[in-house]
Amino acid sequence: xxxxxxxxxxxxxxxxxxxxxxxxxxxxxxxxxxxxxxxxxxxxxxxxxxxxxxxxxxxxxxxxxxxxxxxxxxxxxxxxxxxxxxxxxxxxxxxxxxxxxxxxxxxxxxxxxxxxxxxxxxxxxxxxxxxxxxxxxxxxxxxxxxxxxxxxxxxxxxxxxxxxxxxxxxxxxxxxxxxxxxxxxxxxxxxxxxxxxxxxxxxxxxxxxxxxxxxxxxxxxxxxxxxxxxxxxxxxxxxxxxxxxxxxxxxxxxxxxxxxxxxxxxxxxxxxxxxxxxxxxxxxxxxxxxxxxxxxxxxxxxxxxxxxxxxxxxxxxxxxxxxxxxxxxxxxxxxxxxxxxxxxxxxxxxxxxxxxxxxxxxxxxxxxxxxxxxxxxxxxxxxxxxxxxxxxxxxxxxxxxxxxxxxxxxxxxxxxxxxxxxxxxxxxxxxxxxxxxxxxxxxxxxxxxxxxxxxxxxxxxxxxxxxxxxxxxxxxxxxxxxxxxxxxxxxxxxxxxxxxxxxxxxxxxxxxxxxxxxxxxxxxxxxxxxxxxxxxxxxxxxxxxxxxxxxxxxxxxxxxxxxxxxxxxxxxxxxxxxxxxxxxxxxxxxxxxxxxxxxxxxxxxxxxxxxxxxxxxxxxxxxxxxxxxxxxxxxxxxxxxxxxxxxxxxxxxxxxxxxxxxx
Length: 663
Fold this sequence. Notes:
seven-stranded mixed β-sheet, disordered N terminus, about 675 residues, alpha+beta, 11 helices, 40 strands, about 30% strand
């Protein structure tokens, strides 16, 4: 119960991505006493778990995203196991939570994080947010007793675990789960309340009596029903297909018999390996429908596909195997027309105009420093305008890798950034107005090490050990016995040696961008460091000039922004990571309206802390967010010192967080 109470107190912080405006009382006009979720919302608001989107609006029917679900799961897991939440938002904001959930095996796959979460998807994540002891079974829910969740489903384990723990009871009297529907804020209120408070969990008393129900049906009635119901079968089988590279074939299946409605799961395999579910949207669409569209690239390959159909009673039937043969460009060039002279080889589908859709200017790779942004562009010709664009990067998933869509990268030009050194491949898929597609050549962006940067979140003192600085690493890496500079708001530097590093209660030798860590600096007094100070390494490049150039975006009035335009010279507070400072906004336009975006805006800040290209500040007035400012131009000033004195190292300390909690 002690952990449950602590969880409640910190949930306000964890739920900030979902909530916008704090509402201390139930003044929501869209939550009525007659609504099924009224008590859950009231309880969640009173405990500080969730807020309204405005003082009078809760928005119970708004959907939540996978990113928000993962953030909640990460915060609950860390607090339950470590006693505190140290996770903080990154770039994109949900990346640290995703990384944490992968490390802690809460999730084991990539999601389209900005998509609305399904009920089954959300439950699968929450079922692993707490250990088994935190989700003890209180209900008898036998396998296959949830009508629309057969135990054979991939997501069934998580759903049944939450039913048995009293977190869920279904959407109707039959306890149906409705697994493929989206999750709403009303449903989240109920789930959070029950996750956090065992007293709120629900008992289900009528799901363990399936044998009694079966006995109510007489044998002769079973036989009669069996004769009337035709067995589930495949009426139309998927067919083999041979295509040119880049085309998008469609496999189709039709079922009959059994009990409707049907559910579908397409599977694929290559080289007679194990069958795998086609759930990734990076390789096709419609994997859970009668028709499955396969995305192909420029290479030759052969793969097999089949569909497993399940009816409403859990009966399954598997279609015949269909073979897809994709002929690469080199094999098909003798029979294809040559592309226009201005085009490089590329993959196209369904050209319907006299001039085929093609890439006129390919994206080009580049080399930049970590923390900086690289701009990629592509130009298309032919086909039928207007074009739509979807940029992709090559991402690794465990031992495998695949192309993944980049959220919001839907223009012919995209800005990409990276907080850690390494190479990343990019490409762009262009679609014309008639559905023809063309994929650009791959390009590689190389990010070089730009040193190290971390902002201090908290400062602790451990008796007989020294000072501990906690925070999230923005970019670069840190190792035991590395020398760092502590940069204060006035720009002064203090040298120190990191003698121990801890992450998630474990002492480690090194940490890198995205990690939330505690750093032991024994030669530094607690009074010499403040929240918001920055740590850099001796070879880090950064700027601490107070003048920055960037892009200013103001929130609209409807989104909580100002109600009138601002003029050049406007002053506000600029927030980033763990610190805030006063800044003056200057621009050439005659005022800037709420909801507008303007480039080449100058901001002069008060302090002299490190800045970096791509850094995004939140702009607030009296604690109210009114917009953002993203740095697009900086002048680097090396911090290298010709002479440095490294303080002597000390014995590795006991666990930093343990020492902190015992204070």
